[in-house]
Design a protein that fits this description.
The protein is mainly beta. The model is unreliable at 1-18 and 164-170 (pLDDT under 50). It folds into 2 domains: 22-161, Jelly Rolls (Sandwich), CATH 2.60.120; 175-247, Immunoglobulins (Immunoglobulin-like), CATH 2.60.40.10. It contains no helices and 21 strands. The two termini are 45 Å apart. The chain is elongated and about 80 Å long. Strand 9 and strand 10 form a beta hairpin.
Length: 251
């Protein structure tokens, strides 16, 4: 009796067709201070407790627990420990985002700003205000963390065109199958059927040598596929095991 070749598969979805989420640090601006008009915010901006001018190519959210107004035109989001600001660029391009922070009441604040997957920047001696400027694509969350002083603060977010024209990074969806080695195997067969099925899948997709992975690049978004892998040993093929089904997300 032929034994079943037990296997497993993992799904790698270069999901969806979209833009890579990334924040590239551009500069620390200590010179502009409160005179941001004409320098930042040509595409949109958000001032806590103040004016919001939405950017056509993206949005923002801030998790800070509190807001504060020191004086007319001087406001901030703040938290005694840390908070996040999430920037979402929706047009597939890269745009400039500037974060404005000011130690307005001169409490010798020091705080760090860290984008997801990026390097940490430190703000200190910023009683006259500093801007951290980034080129951002996709959805990126920045974490503001107090190092010293009463809290971490953020006084404004400004959106501007990025370097060059929008250039989305796209990839087609794929399914990558991985399986454990079968003793004595000289090759493997990959079977695929459309839809989620409960029995063997009779359609041979690919005959392989002694490899333990296969990437199916012919899948279509929104479709469901069932896969099975058999081993070849001494010229004989193992029976198909129960299939594994994957549904490819729609973009």
């Amino acid at each position: 009796m032929r034994k079943y070749f037990l296997w497993f598969a993992t799904l790698l979805l270069m999901t969806a067709i979209g833009t890579r989420a990334q924040a590239t640090f551009v500069k620390l601006d200590t010179a502009t201070q409160t005179k941001w008009q004409g320098v930042y915010g040509s595409s949109g901006y958000a001032i806590p407790l103040g004016t919001v001018s939405p950017a056509s190519f993206g949005g923002w959210s801030v998790s800070a627990s509190q807001t504060w107004q020191w004086a007319a035109g001087a406001t901030c989001w703040y938290d005694p420990n840390s908070f996040t600001a999430t920037i979402t660029i929706t047009d597939g391009g890269t745009h400039q985002v500037a974060f404005w922070a000011q130690d307005y009441d001169k409490q010798t604040r020091v705080e760090t700003v860290t984008p997801a997957g990026g390097a940490t920047q430190t703000l200190s001696n910023f009683s006259t205000g500093n801007y951290l400027v980034y080129d951002v694509s996709g959805k990126v969350t920045f974490t503001f963390t107090k190092v010293s002083g009463p809290n971490a603060v953020l006084d404004g977010i400004f959106f501007d065109p990025g370097p060059g024209s929008p250039a989305p990074t796209t990839s087609s969806p794929v399914v990558t199958l991985n399986w454990p080695a079968s003793t004595g195997a000289t090759g493997y067969n990959i079977y695929r059927c459309v839809g989620a099925i409960s029995g063997p899948c009779g359609t041979l997709l690919q005959a392989l040598g002694v490899v333990l992975t296969y990437t199916d690049t012919t899948v279509v978004s929104g479709m469901t596929y069932s896969y099975d892998v058999t081993s070849i040993s001494s010229g004989k093929e193992s029976a198909q095991a129960p299939v594994t089904a994957f549904t490819i997300p729609s973009p």
